[in-house]
Amino acid sequence: MLRKNLSLEDTIFALTSGALPSAVAVVKMSGPEAFAISEKVFFPHNEKLSKKRAVWTGILKTRDNQKIDNIVAVTFVGPHSHSGEDTVEFHCHGSVAVVKLLERELLALSARPASRGEFSYRALLNGKQTPTDLENLGDVFKASHSADLEAIYKRKDGGLEREIESFRSKLISLQAVLDTAVDFTDEYSHVVEQAAASVESIIRGCSVVTHRYSRFKNGKSLPKMVLVGSPNAGKSSLFNALLGRYRAIVSAEAGTTRDAIEEQIEILDRPWNVVDTAGFRSTDSAIEKEGIELGTSFLSSASIWILVIDGTVGLKKREVELLQSYRNIPHLVLWNKKDLNGWSAVSTPLSAKVIEGSVLNSFDIESFWCELENLCRNTQIGETGPIPTAVQAARLETISAALKELKDSIGLGLPPEILAEKNRSIMVQLENVVGKVEVDDVLGRIFSEFCIGK
What number is the average pLDDT over the span 99-108? Predict the structure, then answer.
């Protein structure tokens, strides 16, 4: 974690590209001695290295004139660089030996390894980026798909400010009641008691907002596609077909899948979590019952779901119930096992799109993909509200704790003047949620999650 006592007089370096070995590695050096140190290890082909913005080709050498690599160097003169300082980037081959040898030389020439996020820290102190810019940058690294990026870039639209203002408006109304109750305690005591409901609604609202960031940060914002149906209907076979590889056990024995199996696939350039659930049926097995219950919980949180029906058996009561209970969640019906004797077409009109075929044989997986892509394309997925930043989420968590304390105080019947003071303090905290992000917030919360090369 970065600390304020990190010296800006140091010249720092770090590997800023991916893991080694690789085709190309980029070692970045930034600070007041960046050019002076570079002159001792990098020797351009056609001219002496000088302090200017340029791209150079040349040779890296050790202090005892041993060749390290043929490279390209890119030089930036402060303040016209990412960090606002003189900066040199060494673009060399992504060899472990090359990079280690270069780093050894830089150390010997008094440069030091950068701390986590130190390049960005210097950019912040040199006025090249704001704390808010860095918060957004930190979240860009966490983004797992384009919808996450869109939510991050839309933070300037004011959606979160409007939500916070709605919370604050409720507290302002509560404040009016509490201030009046100070002078008319007897008449307004019952009104103060009713204020607990208003506080509870704000607590729930704060929880919804902070949950959005938690889901985003932990990679749980991916949309979920859930496969459901009776045992042996063909869910696991469809699961394997979607993945394009063998993952779930496929067997003619009912109840083979005893818990939910989850994997990722990509549809229309977006990752999805695909869940193969345990089949719905009555069972005495405690393990299988647990799997069935787990499957139901996945279904209730699905973005879309696919009901697989054994076409040799037909529609069962439990499957009809599923179609009714979860009709508001986008879904498809696969009428499976068309290749087997005893299969019959759909006879009962269903509101969902029905695809007839067989996963294992005559079923045309391409036509199924077409229907699936149409469903995914037309399904509203992702968070329905703005995603806060890490600092905003932390501030809201603090406010939630204060609101819970206020609610408890109301329940204990504390005097209205005490309640009014607590409420007033919370209103001020709410104003600060979307206020200025301080450098200390960045030091303690944002940079701790940055990589070394950033």
Answer: 96
Rounded to an integer, what distance in angstroms lies between the CA atom of residue 388 and that of residue 391?
8
- Sign for the pseudo-dihedral over CA of 76, 80, 82, 87: positive
pLDDT of residue 15: 96
Q: Is the pLDDT of residue 1 over 60?
A: no
State whether residue 11 is helix, strand or coil.
coil
What is the spatial distance between Cα 403 and Cα 410, in angstroms, rounded to a whole number? Answer: 10
- 138-171 pLDDT tens trace: 888 877 777 777 778 878 788 888 888 888 888 8
Going by DSSP bridges, is the β-strand pair 353-356/12-15 parallel, antiparallel, or unpaired? unpaired
Contact 453, 12 (CB under 8 A): no
Structure tokens at 359: 């996963």
How many Cα atoms occupy the beta-carbon half-sphere of 43 within 13 Å?
Answer: 12
Measuring CA to CA, which residue among 85, 31, 93 is closest to residue 60? Answer: 93
**pLDDT for the residue 247:** 46
Query: Peptide bond preceding 79: is omega within 30 degrees of 0, i.e. cis?
Result: yes
d(CA 130, CA 127): 7
- How far the first Cα of the chain sits from its last, in Å, is 13
Distance from C-alpha of 384 to C-alpha of 151, rounded to nearest angstrom: 10
Q: Give the Cβ contact number of residue 184 at 10 Å.
A: 11
Q: Collapsing DSSP states into helix, strand and coil, what is residue 438?
A: coil
Domains of the chain, CATH where assigned? 12-130 (3.30.1360.120), 157-218+386-436 (1.20.120.430), 224-377 (3.40.50.300)
pTM recorded for the entire structure: 0.62
pLDDT at position 316 is 85
Report how far residue 269's alpha carbon sits from residue 271's, in angstroms, rounded to the nearest whole number: 7
